[in-house]
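Retry 2 of 3 after timeout on previous attempt. Resubmitting structure tokens to design endpoint.
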């Protein structure tokens, strides 16, 4: 099994792409888009874009904020205007939010002007790609906490060598947005509206000299003597103060939401806080009192940039994303042979062959596609199951019914994973170039022992 050190060493030995052959990553946020690439030294870095700020990225227009497709096009157009066409583009996709559903994703990525080769990558896989490259994530379970403007999203992942499997997930997404609600509470304490000007003033205050140290000191004093220090100013927004009391009230809503979301996926896992709110040192203090924090704390990596920097490493080929489905997918059916009921089993996809957002994988025998005959005039009942990499029996996942076909009909049977990891059984007529019929299967199990029990 690959160790973290070996994984980091093998990654470091890879050659980053040349400037003439660029590979970049993009992470579309609520208000900004961030793009990253790997520099000549093999380290990921943010891409210089016209109008972008170093901490937040490229501000999105109102039209782009209303559509992830428009945001993706706007970010890529800004990149192309300054740097030219990219060879490969890795798009960070939130796992549970589904910001780019399959049909929309295909239209967006396929419709990009001067489009490069595009690959979607789940945000947790992107974050763990960065940690694995830095030797900070070995085998084990990690709760990746994405604390952004929209929600607190926790994804439980298992790292085993080069494989990163998603086991569970939960989110807390208030109507006003988690990060936006936090900022709105701070601005309200200063008597300011939550608008673009207010957010800019708050961002400038957070970037001020010693702003983080001043905040920590004020909170520490207030914890010892709240009656005296709760009115201490932690930020000045122009001539308007944000006090310790304002900050603690706003932060309490975030920590309560995060604690409940983490409890949903269980305890005992290493916690990796990322996203804009993960910049807050008091939030790390709160988490450290309850969990084992790993990853980016104390490093030079901005937690808001973790996903796009990890995706840039994947785009450059320096890290295997590890997001392929680790188990084989099979179907079994029953038919009468000589008056006896006989079970037939067909492996559709070998272990590690399915990649989210990629083309379907079809059953093969001897290197040739297997033809399946639908039952004429009646539905055919089949059981979809998975088999672990160690072999053994197939674990049934779902029973589906294949639509009836005309006499002589033949089709290829396949399976695909959408960009957000939802599996689909695919029936493509022999000789056809289109997908044909698809049956949604839901999420395939990763931890087969836990699923079995």
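Retry 2 succeeded. Sequence:
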């Amino acid at each position: 099994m690959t160790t973290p050190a070996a994984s980091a060493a093998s990654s470091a030995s890879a050659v980053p792409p040349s400037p003439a052959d660029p590979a970049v990553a993009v992470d579309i946020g609520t208000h900004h888009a961030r793009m990253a690439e790997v520099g000549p030294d093999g380290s990921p870095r943010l891409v210089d874009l016209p109008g972008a700020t170093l901490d937040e990225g490229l501000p999105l227009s109102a039209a782009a904020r209303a559509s992830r497709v428009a945001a993706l096009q706007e970010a890529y157009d800004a990149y192309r205007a300054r740097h030219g066409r990219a060879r490969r583009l890795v798009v960070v996709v939130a796992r549970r939010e589904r910001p780019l559903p399959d049909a929309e994703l295909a239209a967006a990525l396929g419709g990009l002007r001067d489009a490069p080769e595009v690959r979607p990558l789940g945000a947790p896989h992107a974050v763990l790609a960065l940690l694995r490259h830095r030797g900070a994530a070995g085998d084990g379970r990690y709760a990746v906490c994405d604390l952004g403007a929209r929600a607190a999203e926790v994804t439980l992942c298992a790292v085993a060598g080069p494989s990163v499997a998603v086991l569970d997930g939960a989110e807390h997404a208030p109507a006003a947005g988690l990060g936006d609600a936090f900022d709105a509470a701070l601005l309200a304490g200063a008597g300011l509206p939550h608008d673009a000007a207010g957010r800019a003033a708050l961002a400038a205050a957070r970037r001020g000299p010693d702003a983080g140290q001043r905040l920590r000191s004020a909170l520490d004093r207030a914890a010892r003597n709240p009656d005296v220090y709760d009115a201490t100013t932690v930020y000045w927004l122009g001539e308007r103060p944000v006090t310790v009391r304002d900050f603690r009230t706003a932060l309490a809503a975030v920590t309560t939401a995060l604690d409940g979301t983490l409890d949903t996926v269980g305890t005992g896992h290493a916690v990796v806080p990322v996203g804009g709110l993960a910049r807050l040192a008091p939030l790390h203090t709160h988490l450290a009192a309850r969990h084992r924090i790993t990853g980016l704390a104390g490093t030079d990596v901005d937690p808001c940039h973790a996903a796009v920097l990890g995706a840039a490493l994947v785009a450059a080929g320096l890290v295997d994303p590890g997001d392929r489905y680790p188990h084989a997918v099979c179907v079994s059916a029953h038919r009468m042979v000589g008056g006896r009921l006989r079970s037939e089993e067909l492996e559709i996809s070998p272990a590690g062959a399915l990649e989210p957002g990629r083309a379907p994988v079809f059953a093969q025998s001897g290197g040739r596609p297997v033809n399946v005959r639908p039952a004429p005039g009646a539905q055919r009942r089949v059981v979809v199951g998975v088999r672990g990499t160690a072999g053994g029996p197939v674990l049934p996942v779902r029973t589906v019914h294949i639509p009836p076909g005309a006499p002589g009909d033949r089709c290829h049977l396949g399976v695909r994973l959408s960009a957000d990891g939802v599996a689909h059984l695919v029936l493509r007529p022999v000789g056809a170039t289109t997908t044909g019929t698809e049956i949604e299967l839901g999420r395939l199990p990763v931890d087969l022992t836990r699923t079995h029990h």
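Attempt log closed. The radius of gyration is 25 Å.
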